[in-house]
Structures are given as structure tokens and as C-alpha cells.
């Protein structure tokens, strides 16, 4: 009965976006699937020796998708992975936490309903947003009583509740044991076309060192463009990296399309790599050359402060389009953003973001050397 429910787990989850009672089902391979909530399930592989710890399962892997509801290609790919696991075509040798993020937004075919879920991690879900777009922590909550007009949003909406729950599920998953290699792939698609169709965002690393294995994984999946973040951010991948020491990436897999209209063949390579990583304990991505990777470093962040905010380039500019030194990029009242001395590429430009949110990242070409890998 429970196995039948898993056959259409996403439909079940979307029909119950506010929560599902936990249940579990055995897998034919000997492991089991535990449903923790709508859109959240954990695959526990079979122990190799009855009653003993599974030595082969040395990785704890989180795959998340649909953190933005209209980014459907990764959602469809994750459904395929799950169908393979449920049917036994893919026998998981590693622990897996699979997350379909924003179910309400999926149902409405929108990026977000009230709040951008991918700006609510690292505890941001517990903060209040003032009408000027700045964040006030809970200690300042009495401002709402003193001047009701100041506070635009209360700290509670569905995305904030979901972010808090997802943080708890991540803790439950990773903290179930120590010593495992922790991985997190947060899968997205971009609003605009991109000069390099698939790319990854590496969350900020204070150490300025980057996982060789993670980069090799990207290369194996034919994702050859990497953007290194310049600062911590309230994103899901930054949360897992900072909070749990996971090797995490946000992976962008092409442009946003409605369900059923994605060219899924473009995600085959990534799906094959994930399948291999999940099912073959000794799988290693093949050796890769650093020179095969196109690397960008974020050099400035453009923030929308007011409704006057606008870009000074056209709406159809693709991600990674280059701008010459000193070019005017955006203005917001008296503020302006220009390219510095070296050509800069624009990533994720979006003038429609909420006040106080990032409206674009600007990046310069850089290189990674062996010394920067760990
Ligand atoms: O195309 C866009 O403007 C946004 C696509 C997207 O959702 N990207 C993520 C990147 C997260 C990160 O910086 O790691 C986001 O903006 O949340
Ligand atoms: Zn996204």
C-alpha cells in the first residue's frame, strides 16, 4: 500500500502541500524509504550485514529541487530518479534525502508565492522584513506594535514555515551519524537563457578552497561553468555548507520551462552521474583538468533598494553576457552600479526581486589552481 503511494509521491505531495503524515515502505532491494513530510523522503540503504552498519553507505547525499516552484526540469529529473529507486532499477547504496521544495509554488506554476524560499535559509525565515527591505531580527519585533506601518510582512508565511522545516530535515538527515561524506546538490533552472547553459554556483568558502571531488562531479556531468560566491548568502546550498560542512552546490540546468516542456535529454548526463554516485559505492568521477572548467568569481552584488531600481541593459540579456569597464549597469535613486576596471559578466539579473534582495551578481573570469582544491 505504502509502496503504491510512493509511485506518485510528487502528486501526493502537491495534493498535500501543507504536510503529510510520515510513513515508510520497504524497497525490494532490502532498504527502505521513509517519507518525512510532503516532498521530503529519505532512502536508507540495506545494511550489508544484517544488523551491522552499512560500510558501503559512506555518503549522505541530499538532492533538492523545486525550491522555486516553476523550475520544473530538475523536478522532473528527480521524479525519474525516485521512480528508478522505487522500481528497483536504481539500488541506492548511499543514504539519500530527496526534497521537492516549494509545492505550493509548483501548484501555482510560480517561482515563489509570498517569499523567495532560497533567501530564507540560515535562519532568515525567523526574521521580519520591513517595508524598506531591510531585515529586522525578532528582538526588534515590537517595532510592529509601535508602528504597524513599518512592518510589511509578518514572520510567518508558508515559505518561511517550509524553510524552517527543511532546515530541521537537513539536521535530522546529516546528524543521524558522523563520519559520512556530506553532499548537497540543489537543482534549479534560470529565468533567462545563459551563454553557458548549465552552470553551478559554489557557495562562499571562507577558506577559499574548493572540493576536487565536487568539481570532478560537475565535469563528469558536463557542467563546465562554475561561479564562485563572494559572500555567505541565505541560500539552501550555503546553509548546508555552513551548517553541516556539506560539499554543496546550486546547479542551474537551463532555462525555466513549464512542466512537460523540458528537453529532458539535456539532463541525462547529470542523472547518470547521480545514479552512479548513489548506486556504486566505489564510483569516482573521472579525473578532470582544471583548464576544462570555466570559472567566474563574483566581484559585486547589485541590490534592489527601492521601486526606482532599474537595469541599464535590455531584458533579454543572457546570463554571463559581458559588460565593458565603467559601463553603467543599474541605478536606484542616487545609487548606481558600474563595471570596474575589468570586463564583468552579469548573472541572474532580475529587477522584479523584493526590496533588499539581490537583483544581480557581477562576475569576473578567474582561474582555480591545484592549491585551491581540497
Ligand atoms: O535566473 C535567476 O534569476 C535565478 C535562478 C535561481 O533560482 N538561482 C538561485 C541561485 C542560488 C545561489 O546563488 O546559490 C537563486 O537565485 O536562488
Ligand atoms: Zn531557482
UniProtKB/TrEMBL annotation:
Give the residues annotated as active site.
Answer: 252
Q: Which SUPFAM superfamilies match?
A: Zn-dependent exopeptidases
Among its keywords, does the record have Manganese? no
* Known pathway: Amino-acid degradation; L-arginine degradation via AST pathway; L-glutamate and succinate from L-arginine: step 5/5
Q: How is the cofactor bound?
A: Binds 1 zinc ion per subunit.
Residues the entry annotates as binding Zn(2+) = 68, 71, 188
- Please list the residue ranges annotated as the Succinylglutamate desuccinylase/Aspartoacylase catalytic domain: 59-132, 155-276
InterPro entries with a match to the protein in the record: AspA/AstE_fam, AstE_AspA_cat, Aste_AspA_hybrid_dom, SuccinylGlu_desuccinylase
- CDD domains in the record: M14_ASTE
Name all AstE/AspA barrel-sandwich hybrid domain ranges: 292-364
Q: Biological process GO terms, please?
A: L-arginine catabolic process to L-glutamate; L-arginine catabolic process to succinate
In the record, the note on similarity to other proteins reads: Belongs to the AspA/AstE family. Succinylglutamate desuccinylase subfamily.
- What name does this protein carry? Succinylglutamate desuccinylase
Q: Which organism is it from?
A: Oceanisphaera profunda
Q: Which gene encodes it?
A: astE
Amino acid at each position: 500500500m505504502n509502496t503504491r503511494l510512493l509511485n506518485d509521491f510528487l502528486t501526493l505531495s502537491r495534493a498535500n502541500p501543507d504536510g503529510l503524515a510520515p510513513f515508510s515502505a520497504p524497497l525490494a532491494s532490502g532498504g527502505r524509504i521513509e517519507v518525512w513530510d510532503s516532498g521530503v523522503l529519505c532512502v536508507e540503504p540495506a545494511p550489508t550485514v544484517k544488523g551491522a552498519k552499512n560500510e558501503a553507505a559512506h555518503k549522505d547525499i541530499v538532492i533538492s529541487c523545486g525550491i522555486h516552484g516553476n523550475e520544473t526540469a530538475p523536478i522532473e529529473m528527480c521524479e525519474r530518479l525516485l521512480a528508478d529507486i522505487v522500481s528497483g532499477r536504481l539500488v541506492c547504496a548511499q543514504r539519500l534525502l530527496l526534497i521537492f521544495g516549494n509545492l505550493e509554488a509548483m501548484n501555482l506554476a510560480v517561482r515563489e508565492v509570498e517569499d523567495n524560499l532560497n533567501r530564507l535559509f540560515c535562519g532568515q525565515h525567523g526574521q521580519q522584513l520591513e517595508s524598506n527591505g531591510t531585515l529586522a531580527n525578532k528582538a526588534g519585533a515590537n517595532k510592529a506594535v509601535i508602528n504597524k506601518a513599518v512592518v510589511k510582512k509578518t514572520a510567518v508565511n508558508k515559505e518561511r514555515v517550509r524553510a524552517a522545516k527543511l532546515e530541521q530535515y537537513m539536521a535530522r538527515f546529516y546528524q543521524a551519524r558522523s563520519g559520512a561524506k556530506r553532499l548537497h546538490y540543489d537543482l534549479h533552472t534560470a529565468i533567462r537563457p545563459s551563454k553557458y547553459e548549465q552552470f553551478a554556483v559554489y557557495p562562499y568558502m571562507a577558506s577559499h578552497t574548493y572540493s576536487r571531488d565536487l568539481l570532478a562531479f560537475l565535469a563528469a556531468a558536463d557542467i563546465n561553468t562554475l561561479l564562485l560566491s563572494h559572500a555567505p548568502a541565505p541560500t539552501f546550498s550555503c546553509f548546508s555548507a555552513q551548517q553541516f560542512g556539506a560539499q554543496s552546490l546550486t546547479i542551474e540546468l537551463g532555462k525555466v520551462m513549464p512542466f512537460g516542456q523540458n528537453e529532458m535529454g539535456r539532463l541525462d548526463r547529470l542523472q547518470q552521474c547521480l545514479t552512479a554516485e548513489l548506486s556504486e559505492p566505489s564510483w569516482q568521477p573521472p579525473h578532470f583538468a582544471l583548464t576544462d572548467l570555466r570559472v567566474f568569481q563574483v566581484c559585486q552584488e547589485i541590490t534592489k533598494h527601492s521601486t526606482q531600481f532599474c537595469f541599464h541593459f535590455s531584458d533579454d540579456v543572457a546570463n554571463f553576457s559581458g559588460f565593458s569597464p565603467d559601463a553603467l549597469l543599474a541605478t536606484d535613486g542616487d545609487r548606481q552600479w558600474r563595471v570596474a576596471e575589468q570586463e564583468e559578466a552579469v548573472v541572474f539579473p532580475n529587477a522584479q526581486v523584493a526590496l533588499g534582495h539581490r537583483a544581480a551578481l557581477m562576475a569576473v573570469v578567474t582561474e582555480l589552481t591545484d592549491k585551491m582544491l581540497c
